[in-house]
Amino acid sequence: MLRVGSGEPLVLFHGVMGSERHWLEVAPLLAGEYDVIALTALGHRGGPAPRERPVTFTAVVDQAERQLDDLSLERAHMAGNSMGGWMALELARRGRALSVCALSPAGMWLAGGRGHGRATRRLREALALGRLTRPLLPELLRSRVLRRFGLRSVSVDGGRQSRERTLELTDDMLGCVAAEAILATTEHFSALDPLPCPVTIAWSERDQIFPEREAGVIARERLPGARYRVLGNLGHVPMLDDAALVARVIGESAAAARL
What we know:
Elements: E1 2-4, E2 8-13, H1 27-30, E3 34-39, H2 57-70, E4 76-81, H3 83-93, E5 97-103, H4 117-133, H5 137-140, H6 144-150, H7 163-174, H8 179-183, E6 199-204, H9 212-222, E7 227-231, H10 238-241, H11 243-256
Parallel strand pairs: 2-3, 2-4, 4-5, 5-6, 6-7
Antiparallel strand pairs: 1-3
Helix pairs in contact: 2-3
């Protein structure tokens, strides 16, 4: 768990095959106003180990709620990316959120898991490539071009990440024991109307995993009361492209709960 700052609690949730480390650059930017807590999800590297297999998305949310209980957090501001955005929205449905900022949230596909095959193919390809090349990566990732290639699905310019940071992201991906089960989920996000708290949906303009023109349309339909915005020139994991902008969007979302 990553925890910095003081003030009202703000809990951050990462995407599938990620970890709390996805928020390393964002968390300090919010620490002046909030008690920022970044959690690692069930079955992910450094997070709680699953007791049952296969790991379901519902089980991931249940575990996150237990983590909130362990932290004595009845309600908190929440933000999440991809799977983490979906988690935050489901926790809001359960009455645990003061506000939600969902960044390109997962789950915006049809019942039965139909409609997210392209996204899971891209992520499985990245996982397979990581497994194949991991022994060579410490040397290969000295190249900015290869770092950009390796992170092309989630970042507009992954070459800006350091070799060490890219290795860390790769090891998070490879260390996720829940990856295959989560990628194969048949669960989906169902409509939430009226909203239980202020909700901001922020979609990355250049998201290659869940393109805004497709998944974003579904999000607008299922969350008709949410504030919606598009983040220009950012990839699926926007924290990698512009941590300062992501922090501002999250801060604005949390501030809306005070109005």
